[in-house]
Write a structure and sequence with these properties.
4-stranded antiparallel β-sheet; 6 strands; 7 helices
């Protein structure tokens, strides 16, 4: 039988390498243009996987909500987020303020969007431009055909008291509520845009006592007096 190979052994070896390793090789070999091309390739690879899992989880949440209701959605979010989040909370709480801001920025940069960061006397606020998940889903029309992801119709703590909340965004109030249960205060507070879904600000307060009482009330909690 004639040789029917499509790829050379070298091509197969190159395809098997991590893009980050190829970037290092290009930099070490003083091939800056190749390093740039590989950098953009890695961005496209990561974004494709990022959006696949973004849509997957949004589809799962939609199925739970449509078939089992809001209570089941609440319970499933709390259980699934606790599995990952509980171990992170104490290390975040024990860090100094500068480290806390850097940790949150590191997590948000995983959504591959630029960050706008502002500081005042009480807090640092971070905004993705645009939000790499919830806002992009809205902008892409994912809550209409053909994806038809669900919105939470009635106001609740999972919607910050708003109607027709895109279901992907419902996880963020849970990420504030769980640390209140564990630490008596949220790690950060999210302020949604007043004009549309998306464009949220993530605000880290320099002291828990600076966190507004309203941030607790909107998710059904009470702010405890400072010691």
């Amino acid at each position: 039988m004639a040789n029917e190979s499509i790829f050379t052994a070298t091509e197969l070896e190159e395809m098997g390498k991590r893009t980050t390793d190829l970037i290092d090789e290009a930099i070490d070999g003083e091939r800056p243009e190749m390093a740039k091309r590989l950098n953009h390739r890695m961005y496209a690879e990561f974004l494709s996987m990022h959006d696949f899992f973004r849509d997957w989880i949004t589809g799962l949440l939609s199925y739970i909500y449509e078939n089992y209701g809001e209570k089941a959605l609440d319970e499933s979010l709390k259980q699934s987020l606790t599995a990952r989040f509980r171990g992170m909370v104490q290390s975040y709480e024990d860090a100094d303020f500068r480290t806390k801001v850097n940790m949150l920025c590191m997590g948000l940069r995983g959504h591959l969007q630029p960050l706008e960061i502002k500081e005042d006397n009480e807090k640092v606020c971070i905004k993705m431009t645009p939000c790499g998940t919830g806002e992009r889903l809205v902008d892409e029309g994912a809550y209409g055909p053909p994806k038809n992801f669900s919105t939470i119709k009635e106001p609740s703590f999972m919607t910050y008291g708003k109607r027709n909340c895109p279901i992907y965004c419902a996880h963020e109030p849970i990420l504030e509520l769980l640390p209140i249960d564990w630490l008596d205060h949220p790690l950060w507070v999210v302020y949604p845009s007043e004009t549309k879904w998306g464009g949220c600000r993530f605000c880290i307060y320099k002291k828990p006592e600076y966190i507004p009482e309203e941030a607790y009330k909107r998710i059904g909690k009470e702010k405890k007096p400072s010691a």
